[in-house]
Every structure is written in structure tokens, then in C-alpha cells.
Amino acid sequence: MIRALSTSASGMQAQQTYIDNIANNLANVNTPGFKKTRVEFHDLLYERIGPAGASRLTGSAEPTYSQVGHGVRLAATTRIYNQGSSQSTDNPLDMMIDGNGFFQVLLPDGTFAYTRDGTMKLDSEGNMVTAAGFSVEPTLTLPRETMELLVAGDGAVSVLLQSENEPTQLGQFELVRFQNATGLRAIGHNLYKATVASGPPILGNPGEEGIGTLQMGFLEMSNVNVIEEMIGMITAQRAYEINSKAVKTAEEMLGLAANLKR
């Protein structure tokens, strides 16, 4: 009966983790470029009650095993990278990746991070940076005489300068893809870091080598589906209640056993 207490407790803890994940998804429902996560669980070790393959009176092996499980544990949190909805902003600095890929940004410590958030800004020197102020790589600096910014689907960046009638080629957006994007590690600020699981970054121009294209004046919004998350929340709540009831039932049965009199 003690086994039932620990097994049900592991179930309650698992559902609490499930709810924590749902809460984070819902909190970021309006975060540009946010990718929802999904929790995955594994069952724990099993205790063998009877010997495996024990001989029966007939001389044949037992057709089934006598095993009792010990509950559940968190196996992984998997990030889902399906495309989020697009939103027109009429802001030429906003960029959306239509398809696979990430923007590459330079962190203050000299390392690189990656993001799907295309909310771009200009710093005091005209450099293109993220909303958190991190420099976009490769560096793109707009001249002070810039009247209009033009970004093509293939990442080619042009500007129309004052007193000029034709745009001038300024640079090229480069995007990054990974062999296993689910292996990236989230570090906040809509940023991810490469890991051994994700593999090294693969650089390329938009529209090439399996990388998506760019859409200027659009933002990719969160891919969180509120209805799906609400259904998951209800399911987790019911499972939590049932596990707590199992704990209470096991406790009552232990009390009855402890109060037995000869």
C-alpha cells in the first residue's frame, strides 16, 4: 500500500509540471516568435511480483508477467517549431521568417544566439538590433541619409538614400538552421543557444538550403493554440484530482490495516 502513495504522488507531480508548462505557453500567447513546448512523460521502473516465465503445473511457462509500476516521471520538454500566424505591422524593420530558420544575434559575451523574433530596431549608430538590443549578424548599418529600407525575400537589403532615385545595395540577411532544432536551449529574451543535441548552426541565405524566406513588414506571432492549451489544462486538473483521491484512498486503507485487532 505504501507503493500506491508514492506512485500517486509522482502522478500529482507530473500533472503539476504539465500545468506549469501550459501556464508558460499561455503567458507567451502574444510573444512574437514564441514556440510552444510540450511535456513528455515516461513510466518508472516496475517491481516484479512473480518470477518471469515461472513454470505452471502443466509444465508450460506463465503467459503473463506479474509486475507493478512505480509511477511516472518527466522525460523531456519538446519545443514545437511549426509556423506561427503572421501579422502585418507596416513597419519596415519588422521581419518574418516564412519557413525554417533563425536570425543570428551577437551577445555581449561574444557568443551567438538565435531567435525567431523579427522585431528589429535601430540603435543610435543605425545598426539593426533586436528588441532586447542585441546586434543582428551579419551587422547591418543604415546610413543616416536612408529614406526607405527594402528587404527582398532572399534577404538582400537595399536602401533608398536622400537625393537618389535608385536603391543602393546595403548587405545581405543570413539565416541559420539546425539539424535538430528541438535540441536548442532557451535562454530567455526569445533567444536560443546551440547545444550538442541541436548540432552546429548551418548558415545560408533565405530561400536556400532548406531555409525559409523573409517577409518585410510582418511579424511571426506565437504558435500557441489557446483552445488546445485550455483542454490540456482541464485534463491535467482532472488527472491531479484522481491521483490525489488515490492517495487518500491508500491512506484510508492503511488506517484500516493499522487498526485491525485480533
What is the string of helix and strand elements? HEEEEEEEEEEEEEEEEEEEEH
Helix percentage: 10-25%
Number of strands: 20
Q: What distance lies between the first and last C-alpha atoms, to the nearest angstrom?
A: 21 Å
Reconstruct the topology from this structure.
Layout: H1 2-27, E1 37-43, E2 46-48, E3 67-69, E4 72-79, E5 86-88, E6 95-98, E7 102-106, E8 112-115, E9 120-122, E10 128-130, E11 135-137, E12 146-151, E13 156-161, E14 168-172, E15 175-177, E16 185-188, E17 191-193, E18 202-204, E19 213-216, E20 218-220, H2 226-258
Antiparallel strand pairs: 1-4, 2-3, 5-20, 6-19, 7-8, 7-11, 7-15, 9-10, 12-13, 13-14, 15-18, 16-17
Helix pairs in contact: 1-2
What's a quick, concise take on this entry?
This protein has 262 residues and is an alpha+beta fold. The protein contains two helices and 20 strands.
Folded structure, characterized:
The strands form eight sheets. Strands 7, 8, 11, 15 and 18 form a five-stranded antiparallel sheet that branches. A three-stranded antiparallel sheet has the order 12-13-14, with no helix packed on it. It has a two-stranded antiparallel ribbon with strand order 1-4. The chain has two domains: 115 residues, no CATH class; 135 residues, no CATH class. With 262 residues, the chain is an alpha+beta fold. It contains two helices and 20 strands. The longest helix has 33 residues.
